[in-house]
Automatic annotation (TrEMBL):
Pfam family, one: An_peroxidase
InterPro entries: Cys-rich_flank_reg_C, Haem_peroxidase_animal, Haem_peroxidase_sf, Haem_peroxidase_sf_animal, Ig-like_dom, Ig-like_dom_sf, Ig-like_fold, Ig_I-set
The protein's name: Peroxidasin homolog isoform X2
Binding site for heme b: H1069
UniProt keyword list: Calcium, Coiled coil, Disulfide bond, Endoplasmic reticulum, Glycoprotein, Heme, Immunoglobulin domain, Iron, Leucine-rich repeat, Metal-binding, Oxidoreductase, Repeat, Secreted, Signal
Family of the protein in this entry: Belongs to the peroxidase family. XPO subfamily.
Cofactor: heme b
First and last residue of the signal peptide: 1-29
CDD domains membership: Ig3_Peroxidasin, Ig4_Peroxidasin, peroxidasin_like
Length: 1462
């Protein structure tokens, strides 16, 4: 089988090579016998003796393991796109000059394990982009000083295992980008005085922390093995220079010759350097200067410029010494300053450079100084310098540089000055660019276009290069926006926005597409069908229209969604797999576009033949027993958990994970009952349930007859808990999210919704193919080896007491990751701690009986008390319709798990993932859109409210923790103090924004304020995650994989991948510090001290009684995170003390993670390597590129036996980090894939056009976590602008006033009469006159009384309140009178409109036709309309069920007619 797999792999590569050679633009074919795919060429193990020619577009060239002895000149000509070159494991002996000169894009060069003896001086010239150079394991004996001078971006250099004995000073000069590693160990280095320069360099690296370097001495023998960085001049008997003859002051006149004497001794012989005015003299730049052999400085033909302070410096590797300073004085006749060149007014464009020349003469020579025209000094800006001749030079000019400048020339006799202006002009630049639009005729379209420049540009619009039509429909607003009203078909075409000023112009084009209004028309109709049970069927339906209609299907009035059961093709056909009795009924095909909709229906009848199965007799008794045993176990668990305080870590974990939402509890219970029933029936049937590993040969009625399966589904509750979504309130769904995530994707309303199955990247891997975890049976071997116990993997590989601080990022990097995770996923676990069969607790019996799946403890485990054999663990609840319960869906689907949360980044951790949860945390009484608040602290800011109910996990010890848990949008908010602080911040942020929005829009009701605030808070979280947090986690490489946002894609499912929730995103556990730090306002420890992590679990009392959230927040932003090192993974607070309580066995988070992965059927690590295009691993040595530490590979080998067996979680966290990130390559692939789906599949993504207007989006992008802390902490007033980055207090901290703030004025309604705006119940008022009864509700019918009240209502907020401190009484009175006058005028207009409406009874429809009062008419065959009291009301006729097999649609008749009646 393996051989077949490899054969297929090579065939794929060869096919790829064929595509490679046929690609357009390639000048040569794939080299003979090489493997080519896209732009990668691999020629390994081919015994090549020379470099083959390849195509210019090649980015990766792999020539390893050949017999190449030399690199011919021009071998890499024209390969400007080459990124990676692998030449290791060849026989190359020399690197000639310029051989890589044209490889300007090369980043990675591998030359190790050759026979290189020499490297020419210019060998690496032209490699301006090179980042990594590998030269180890060669025969290099010497290096030229300039060998690496042409590598400005080099970060990593490996030279170990060569024959280097001496290194000349300057060998590694100008390697500023060296960030990671420089290796010189395993050479033949002679550690004498000449090598001290290298010792100093290595010390500099170590002190800066920017790079790692290693070099050891080989000679003399007494120093063998010593690190060069530890060598001192004393032990090498090096002698610092000492001065034996010093120079003297001298006075000169023009044309003299001067000698400054300087002699020095030392070991090695010192170098003599001369300084003038503290600047090193260059003998090359001035022929009059000469340095004699004995160190004497000779200056010939002295000039006035020679005067100054001179000093001699003697320098060698042991140190340096300077003589005393001496002065050369030049004498001439005094003269007042006069200008030689005066500055002139100058015009310059933004971004260019400008020089104001100013030169003066006099004696003494005048000093030139510049100021602004008002006398203020020039800003301290590196762009602004004064040239040696006295000119003012400004580079990269910006608008602020415009203005008057003054040049002063001063000597001892006088001061003169001259002024000039710099006039900065800017070519127009667009700040808001229009976007292509696709609209329906008759609508209004805006093309936004704004620009800036100097002078301010004028916006002009043209169509197809010609002037716009002069009519009232085309209007250019003052902002530059082009508005086209009542769009007609002839308006379609290209429009150009031009921004023009005297400097230049800019132009941008957009396309307007106008769609004709055509309602959907059916091209294919479905007919009634009668089918036998178990068949696969397809019901045809297709439609045409403009815009292209979307086909949806309803069954008995409920929308059908994609699943393993149903599939809607791109044409609109509905496919139903394995038809069962539950599938019969009326199916309606609905074709919708923006113009309207049409529908047609059919009846499906399912014929059930009389069948009997072996399990049928046992159904009744089994389901009764299943309900009894499951309910008994659940009730026993609830009584144990909620009637007393937690007694053990098992109780804490169970309480922590127990679902709070009743619907979640019932859904999990239903799945358990259904599955338990089938297990009991299986036990009664002699042969049991036999299923092949792929689950393909098993059919739904092999065990129980169909009618009995439906009975089980109904009695267990599984059928009742199939979700039914309702997206009919389109006015709401177009603007706001639902709490449960439904209707985000209008084509697939259940995508990303709470209480739905996790998605998967790869097919699940269960022991029996569909529901038993790998490793459940200890005797089972995989690839020849048993799977190791998760606890053994934890103790052998993962747990660590050593913690290395992260030098770049703070601990809040971890905390944001956890907070974000609790917005994305929460697995519903079994409701019972006891097994269903007999009610015994899972941790006491240690057997794998449902729902128990305990973590076995290996022999001689160091932490076992009371002879415990296992740790508590129960399986996650199955989705109804998967695993055993997939029988209900008439097919075998592998077991899937339930995500309790919405998948979107929508702040569900603040607001909840269901309407029930949201109502619990909302302050509905105030009608101000606020969240409930708890006790108010001294700072005046509230804490979260307390949860009510029975004792919780926060009251595990009444002596320590009498305070109940806090209540938040996610039930895990109390898990640890840092997380609780984050929940407190965001609850306060909601109330802060809601309060401000109410001030700006007093006419908004509570629901509008709540949903608008929720929308802003969700957008803030999205922006912080993708703009500030992810770049630190993914690094540059990962962000490129993530890509730029290109708009919403309704074909992308934003659901959370099971692999992400169960393994990949749990990498954050490796960043957790073992201590929760608490710091005061001076960032010093609190008197109460820090808190060990195991004492921070479920401890809200520490926030209430020990200083609030500020000390915890300072600890998060002021302390580095834990650095993930492959040998330092999870700290022992998590692996040895998780949820610890006295006299009990604590839990192990690492073991839980591994066991949960097996419970969920997560495939092994190797499968994901293949998915992420990494190399296949046939042995553990094949992992060395990603897991470089040989000790870790050896541990993995001892534990797992085969690399094909590795569990995903431990393998991901032992991978070496991709440079610049905090992830290994496989983990980076998985996370970038998930976050791309979360962003691109979210219709309410904050950057999706239409979610926010441009001004609001600009404000959202001002958001930062630093600003959130400033606004919502108790009293933190200073912090680093980027709280994720380590910063020094107080130097790198800034005032909160300097951190950009969200300007909520962009959300203020700008309307003449706002009294009816912002009323949540009137959201869709504009549409109600034309909505059919199918999408209307009784309470939505227009009421004249309410409307009249609204028109006459004059709220207390309609008058503006002015600040008396800033305006005179007279001004206040005038403004108030003006406002009052405007209000009265507005009321008069409304009264006239109302009187006009009341005085007439006719109606005007959407086509402009007038209908008299009480007139009734048909708008189309199915829609009846009536004009009453000046308002049109339309109703859609509902067709009764058809009583015939075939029916036909007749033109002019609404409902289908039976064929027999025609």
């Amino acid at each position: 089988m393996a051989a077949d797999g490899r054969h297929s792999f090579y065939v794929l590569l060869l096919v790829g090579a064929g595509l490679f050679t046929a690609a357009p633009g390639w000048v040569s074919a794939c080299p003979s016998r090489c493997l080519c795919f896209r732009t990668t060429v691999r020629c390994m193990h081919l015994m090549l003796e020379s470099i083959p020619p390849v195509a210019p577009q090649t980015t990766i060239l792999d020539l390893r393991f050949n017999r190449i002895k030399e690199i011919q000149p021009g071998a890499f000509r024209r390969l400007k796109n080459l990124n990676t070159l692998l030449l290791n494991n060849n026989q190359i002996k020399r690197i000639p000059s310029g051989v890589f000169e044209e490889l300007e894009s090369l980043k990675y060069l591998y030359l190790y394990k050759n026979e290189i003896q020499s490297i020419d001086r210019q060998a690496f010239k032209g490699l301006a982009s090179l980042e990594q150079l590998y030269l180890h394991f060669n025969h290099i004996e010497t290096l030229e000083p300039e060998s690496f001078n042409h590598l400005p971006k080099l970060e990593r250099l490996f030279l170990h295992n060569n024959r280097l004995a001496h290194l000349a000073p300057g060998t590694f000069h100008d390697l500023e980008s060296m960030k990671r590693c420089k290796r010189l160990d395993s050479n033949a280095l002679h550690c004498d005085c000449e090598i001290l320069w290298l010792a100093d360099l290595l010390k500099t690296y170590a002190e800066s922390g920017n790079a790692q370097a290693a070099a050891t001495c080989e000679y003399p023998r007494r120093l063998q093995g010593r690190s060069v960085s530890t060598i001192t001049p004393e032990e090498l008997h090096c002698e610092r220079p000492r001065i034996t003859s010093e120079p003297q002051d001298v006075d000169v006149t023009s044309g003299n010759t001067v000698y400054f004497t300087c002699r020095a001794e030392g070991n090695p012989k010192p170098e003599i350097i001369w300084l003038r005015n503290n600047n090193e003299l260059s003998m090359k730049d001035d022929a009059r200067l000469n340095l004699l052999d004995d160190g004497t400085l000779m200056i010939q033909n002295t000039q006035e410029t020679d005067q100054g302070v001179y000093q001699c410096m003697a320098k060698n590797v042991a140190g340096e010494v300077k003589t005393h300073e001496v002065t050369l004085r030049y004498f001439g006749s005094p003269a007042r300053p006069t200008f030689v060149i005066q500055p002139q007014n100058t015009e310059v464009l933004v971004g260019e450079s400008v020089t104001l020349e100013c030169s003066a003469t006099g004696h003494p020579q005048p000093v030139v100084k510049w100021t602004r025209g008002d006398g203020t000094p020039l800003p301290n800006d590196p762009r602004i310098i004064t040239t040696p001749s006295g000119g003012l030079y400004i580079q990269n000019v910006n608008q602020e540089d415009s203005g008057e400048y003054t040049c002063f020339a001063t000597n001892t006799l006088d001061t003169i000055h001259s002024t000039a202006y710099i006039i900065v002009q800017a070519v127009p630049q667009f700040t808001v660019t229009p976007q292509d639009r696709n609209v329906i005729e008759g609508s209004t379209v805006d093309f936004h276009c704004e620009a800036q420049g100097y002078p301010q540009p004028v916006i002009a619009w043209t169509k197809g290069g010609s002037q716009l039509s002069v009519d009232r429909r085309h209007l250019v607003l003052s902002t530059g926006t082009l508005r086209i009203s009542r769009v007609a078909l002839h308006d379609q075409g290209q429009y150009e926005c031009q921004a023009v000023n005297i400097v230049g112009s800019q132009r941008i084009s957009v396309l307007l597409t106008v769609q004709h209004r055509v309602t959907p028309v059916f091209a294919t109709f479905p007919n009634d069908m009668t089918v036998e049970i178990g068949r696969d069927i397809q019901i045809p339906c297709s439609a045409q229209g403009e815009p292209e209609p979307v086909i949806t299907w309803n069954k008995d009035g409920i929308q059908v969604t994609e699943s393993g059961k149903f599939h809607i093709s791109s044409d609109g056909f509905l496919a139903i797999r394995d038809v069962g009795p539950a599938d019969q009924g009326r199916y309606e095909c609905v074709a919708r576009n923006t113009i309207g909709y049409s529908s047609v229906s059919m009846v499906l009848t399912v014929f059930v033949p009389e069948v009997s199965r072996n399990g049928d007799p046992f159904v009744a008794t089994s389901i009764i027993e299943a309900i009894a045993t499951v309910d008994r176990a659940i009730n026993s668990t609830r009584k144990h958990l909620f009637d007393s305080r937690p007694r053990s870590p098992n109780d804490l974990l169970a309480l922590f994970r127990y679902p709070r939402d009743p619907y979640t509890v019932e859904q999990a219970r239903a799945g358990e009952i259904f599955e338990r029933t089938l297990q009991l029936i299986q036990e009664h049937v002699q042969d049991g349930l036999m299923v092949d590993l792929n689950g393909t040969s098993y059919h739904y009625n092999d065990l129980v007859s169909p009618q009995y399966l439906n009975l089980i589904g109904n009695l267990s509750g599984c059928t009742a808990h199939r979700r039914v979504n309702n997206c009919s309130d389109i006015c709401f769904h177009q603007k706001y999210r639902t709490h449960d995530g439904t209707c985000n994707n209008l084509q697939h309303p259940m995508w990303g919704a709470s209480l739905t199955a996790f998605e998967r990247l790869l097919k699940s891997v269960y022991e029996n193919g569909f529901n038993l975890p790998r490793g459940m049976r200890a005797e089972r071997h995989y690839n020849g080896y048993p799977l190791p116990l998760p606890r053994l993997v934890s103790t052998s590989l993962i747990g660590t007491e050593t913690v290395t601080p992260d030098e770049q990022f703070t601990h809040i990097l971890m905390q944001w990751g956890q907070f974000l995770d609790h917005d994305l996923d929460s697995t519903v676990v079994a409701l019972s701690e006891a097994r269903f069969s007999d009610g015994q607790h899972c941790s006491s019996v240690c057997t794998n009986d449902p729902p128990c799946f305990p973590i076995a403890i290996p022999p001689n485990d160091p932490r076992i008390r009371n002879n415990a054999r296992c740790m508590f663990f129960v399986r996650s609840s199955p989705v109804c319709g998967s695993g055993m319960t997939s029988l209900l869906m008439n097919s075998v689907y592998p077991r899937e798990q339930i995500n309790q949360l919405t998948s979107y980044i929508d702040a569900s951790n603040v607001y909840g993932s269901s309407d029930h949860e949201s109502q619990e945390i909302r302050d509905s009484a105030s009608q101000r859109g606020l969240l409930r608040q708890g006790i108010v602290q001294r700072s005046g800011k509230p804490l979260l409210p307390f949860a009510t109910g029975p004792p919780t996990e926060c009251q595990r010890d009444e002596n320590e923790s009498p305070i109940p848990c806090f209540l938040a949008g996610d039930h895990r908010a109390n898990e640890q103090l840092g997380l609780t602080s984050m929940h407190t911040l965001w609850f306060r942020e909601h109330n802060r924004i809601a309060t401000e929005l109410l001030k700006l829009n007093p006419h908004w009701d509570g629901d509008t304020i709540y949903h608008e605030t929720r929308k802003i808070v969700g957008a803030e979280m999205q922006h912080i995650t993708y703009s500030h947090w992810l770049p630190k986690i993914l690094g540059e490489v990962g962000m490129k994989m993530l890509g730029e946002y290109s708009g919403y894609d309704p074909n992308i499912n934003a659901g959370i991948f099971n692999e992400f929730a169960t393994a990949a995103f749990r990498f954050g556990h490796t960043l957790i510090n073992p201590i929760i730090y608490r710091l005061d306002e001076n960032f010093e420890p609190l008197p109460q001290g820090h808190v060990p992590l195991h004492k921070a679990f479920f401890s809200p009392f520490r926030i209430v009684n020990e200083g609030g959230i500020d000390p915890l927040l300072r600890g998060l932003i002021g302390v580095p995170a834990k650095m993930r090192i492959p040998s330092q993974l999870l700290n022992t607070e998590l692996t040895e003390k998780l949820f610890s309580m006295s006299h009990t066995v604590a839990l192990d988070l690492a073991a839980i993670n591994i066991q949960r992965g097996r419970d969920h059927g997560i495939p092994p690590y190797h499968d994901f390597r293949v998915y992420c295009n990494l190399s296949m691993a046939h042995s553990f040595e094949d992992l060395k590129n990603e897991i470089r530490n040989p000790e870790i590979r050896e541990k993995l080998k001892r534990l797992y036996g085969s690399p094909l067996n590795l569990d995903l979680f431990p393998a991901l966290i032992v991978e070496d980090l991709v440079p610049g990130s905090r992830l290994g390559p496989t983990l980076m692939c998985l996370l970038s894939t998930q976050f791309k789906h979360l962003r691109n599949g979210d219709r309410f993504w904050y950057e999706n056009p239409g979610v926010f207007n441009p001004a609001q989006l600009t404000q959202i992008k001002q958001t930062s976590l630093a600003r959130i802390l400033c606004d919502n902490s108790d009293n933190i007033t200073r912090m680093q602008p980027d709280v994720f980055k380590v910063a020094e207090f107080p130097h790198s901290y800034v005032s909160c006033a300097e951190i950009p703030k969200l300007d909520l004025r962009m959300w203020q309604d700008c309307c003449e009469d706002c009294r009816t705006r912002g009323q949540f119940n009137a959201l869709s008022y504009h549409f109600r006159g034309r909505r059919s009864t199918e999408y209307s509700f009784q309470e939505e019918k227009p009421s004249m009384t309410k409307e009249t009240e609204t028109m006459f209502g004059l709220g207390k907020h309609n008058l503006k309140v002015l600040d008396n401190s800033s305006l005179s009484d007279h001004s206040v009175n005038v403004l108030m009178m003006n406002d009052l006058q405007k209000t009265i005028t507005s009321l008069k207009k409304q009264l006239k409109k109302l009187e006009s409406r009341l005085s007439r009874t006719e109606c005007t429809d959407e086509k402009g036709e007038i209908h008299s009062g009480n007139k009734k008419w048909k708008r189309d065959p199915c829609t009846n309309c009536e004009c009453k009291d000046g308002q049109i009301t339309c109703f859609v006729e509902t067709c009764p069920p058809s009583d015939c097999l075939t029916s036909q649609k007749i033109e002019g008749v609404c409902c289908p007619v039976c064929s027999k009646h025609l």
